[in-house]
């Protein structure tokens, strides 16, 4: 899928997830690639008969009307599209007694393999979400003697799985304790903390082992190196360690630092790739390089000067479509950037959602 297909599908999914029926009256239909659409039409007609027995008059009307609209829409197709079809129909009005019946359908950019008919309070969006959710996962661990943060990185999102504290008392020594005994207690505390971190990381990462591309561990030199070299992680996860980085912090800000320090090994991850492009743009802005933003974007596109166009996903869909098509006409790359990380927010908030790296100065 290209950037525009992912953007449009994500926008549709978010819209569908925002809708809720007053009762179980929202219809979701998934027709797999190669499945006979006439079989689905027959099923929906039969479901109308079943719906006629619903006791609540308003619910019965809404379900039957939603099914009728779905049937009418499906009859526009002579056969199931190559990649299948997802259809959603229902009354989304928030006011009792007022009907707002709407229908959405999408021919997905990749084949649907799931056959679904469901009538519920919410639309079924899982199969569409699976199409736009990156499958590859990276595990992240930031650890020192006092705190640790465990996270996963997937596409343009990192997710904090667990934050841990050790209760480490390295700076204070109880009266009467010998230096050797004190050091032993500190070593035991440190070991026990690493064991806990290893257990939580194993619980988080091992179930994802099939899609786990790698694990990156960061922290001050001594602690993180001891953690990597010791038997704290499951042996299958130790094989997945792809980088060990020196970082200053081990809280959530340390997680962002670890991602930034690991751009060399995370180059294929969407968020890291987009961060890198925005950093190139900012460097060009500071040093008067070949960049453009705001209203200058159109002139740069007309001149064929754009190498990579950066668009915020917060822009109106019509504007994204227009700029995307203009960029592709000159073989420019296009990235549609969410605002859930610092550089993406900056693109939207500071540069009006439009920026470009140029092949040459306009």
Question: What can you see in these coordinates?
Answer:
Helices cover 42% and strands 23% of the residues. The two termini are 31 Å apart. The strands form three sheets. The chain has a five-stranded mixed sheet, with helices on both faces. It is globular, with a radius of gyration of 27 Å. The mean pLDDT is 91. Helix 2 (37-51) runs antiparallel to helix 3 and helix 9 (270-286) crosses helix 12. The chain is built from twelve helices and 13 strands. It has three domains: 3-131, 2-Layer Sandwich (Translation, Eukaryotic Peptide Chain Release Factor Subunit 1, Chain A), CATH 3.30.960.10; 137-268, eRF1 domain 2 (Nucleotidyltransferase, domain 5); 271-358, 2-Layer Sandwich (60s Ribosomal Protein L30, Chain: A), CATH 3.30.1330.30. The chain has 362 residues and is α+β, with helices and mostly antiparallel strands. The chain has helices at 3-17, 37-51, 57-74, 126-132, 179-205, 221-229, 235-238, 252-261, 270-286, 296-302, 317-329, 342-351, and strands spanning 26-31, 85-91, 101-106, 116-120, 137-143, 147-154, 157-165, 212-219, 241-246, 291-293, 306-312, 333-337, 354-358. Strand 5 (137-143) and strand 6 (147-154) form a beta hairpin.
Domain count, please report it. 3
Number of DSSP E strands: 13
Rg: 27 Å
Strand sequence of the main sheet, in spatial order?
A: 7-6-5-8-9
Q: Label the structural class.
A: alpha+beta
Mean pLDDT: 91
Helix content: 40-55%
Tertiary shape: globular
Largest sheet: 5 strands, mixed
Return residue spans where pLDDT drops below 50 for at least 5 consecutive residues: none
